[in-house]
Design a protein that fits this description.
The protein is α/β, with parallel strands linked by helices and 330 residues long. The protein has two domains: 184 residues, Glucose-6-phosphate isomerase like protein, domain 1 (Rossmann fold, 3-Layer(aba) Sandwich); 120 residues, CBS-domain (Roll). It has a five-stranded parallel sheet. A four-stranded mixed sheet has the order 6-7-8-9. It has a three-stranded mixed sheet with strand order 10-11-12. Helix 1 crosses helix 8, helix 2 packs across helix 8 and helix 3 packs parallel to helix 8.
Length: 330
């Protein structure tokens, strides 16, 4: 009996979880469909900011605001979070005339935020609001107001901020990514703000940093026998052989997969040459490409190694997925 009760309870839990996720997803879709000129106005204000974007909000709005501020800073828009209650007790001194305020309040009537308004107007600082009520004081007093309203919260009592905070977070991401694109913020720029950790490794390494070259490589010409190439592959332990011509240009690659396919296709492999079983025109990268690009190609085509070509298309080495993973490029 206990097992039946637990099963039913589990089904109810999954049903509730799906309802929450679907409601929040539909809430995001709803605000996406309602985007208008106000969003463009907000982007222009934030883009033209010569100082920093100061994000502020109370309670759950403040917690979401901290994440939005962090996303801004990591994508080329200098930003920090200012607690509204502390700002009216001296911390507003950090605000300069070149800054922009991004104020978040679902009701648009949060008292701590409204207390900031006289200071903001006196300083001549532009303000963008994110609020669930267009008619609210915060929306009316802002230079641009973004609609983050939801039809209802995911909370069954329609009280706990759930769908509304999800929508707010998504709107913040939309602002940050639009600003990123408008600034032409590149992957290399992103690395400057993430010099360590997985993101840093993914952007730091270039193909030439992880390439295998020289005597470690099994390099052969296309006219040698298939059996000789297999012996060389076993000796070098990389699971492949590179085929080049007399000028050093790449002709093909011979992998474990090619060997298996040849064994299935031919009854007698003794007289086969490498040219008859190799893969012509293998996938390649340049040595100054990002290692992350090499990994993306490998994942797309389900291969474990790429050949590296010089600017004049001569073979220079290979990059292997094991070395990418070992370096933390994931």
């Amino acid at each position: 009996m206990d097992r039946v009760i637990n099963t039913v309870s589990g089904q109810k839990i999954l049903k509730t979880a799906k309802e929450v996720l679907m409601l929040e997803a539909s809430s995001i879709k709803r605000i996406a469909e309602k985007l208008d000129r106000s969003f463009e106005d907000a982007i222009n204000i934030l883009y033209n900011c010569k100082g920093r974007v100061i994000v502020t909000g109370m309670g759950k709005s403040g917690l979401v605001g901290k994440k939005i501020s962090a996303t801004f800073s990591s994508t080329g828009t200098p930003s920090f979070f200012l607690h509204p209650a502390e700002s009216v007790h001296g911390d507003s001194g950090v605000v300069t005339k070149e800054d922009v305020i991004l104020a978040i309040s679902n009701s648009g009537e949060t008292s701590e935020l409204l207390q900031l308004l006289p200071f903001v107007k006196r300083m001549g600082v532009e303000m963008v609001a994110m609020t669930g009520k267009d008619s609210s004081t915060l929306a009316q007093k802002s230079d641009a107001a973004l609609d983050i309203s939801v039809e209802k919260e995911a909370c069954p009592h329609n009280l706990a901020p759930t769908a509304s905070t999800t929508v707010t977070l998504a709107m913040g991401d939309a602002l940050a990514i639009c600003l990123l694109k408008k600034r032409g913020f590149s992957a290399e720029d992103f690395f400057q703000f993430h010099p360590s950790g997985a993101l840093g490794k993914k952007l730091l390494w270039k193909v030439e940093d992880l390439m295998i070259k020289g005597e470690k490589l099994p390099v052969v010409e296309a006219n040698i026998t298939f059996k000789t190439a297999i012996s060389l592959i076993s000796e070098k332990g990389l699971g492949l052989a590179i085929i080049i011509d007399k000028q050093g240009k790449l002709e093909g690659i011979l992998t474990d997969g090619d060997i298996r396919r040849a064994a299935q296709k031919y009854d007698n492999i003794s007289d086969l040459t490498v040219r008859e079983v190799m893969t012509s025109n293998p996938k390649t990268v340049k040595k100054d490409d990002l290692a992350a690009k090499a990994l993306q190609i490998m994942e797309t085509y389900s291969i474990t190694a790429l050949t590296i070509l010089s600017e004049d298309d001569k073979f220079e080495g290979i990059i292997h997925i094991h070395d990418l993973l070992k370096a933390g490029v994931v």
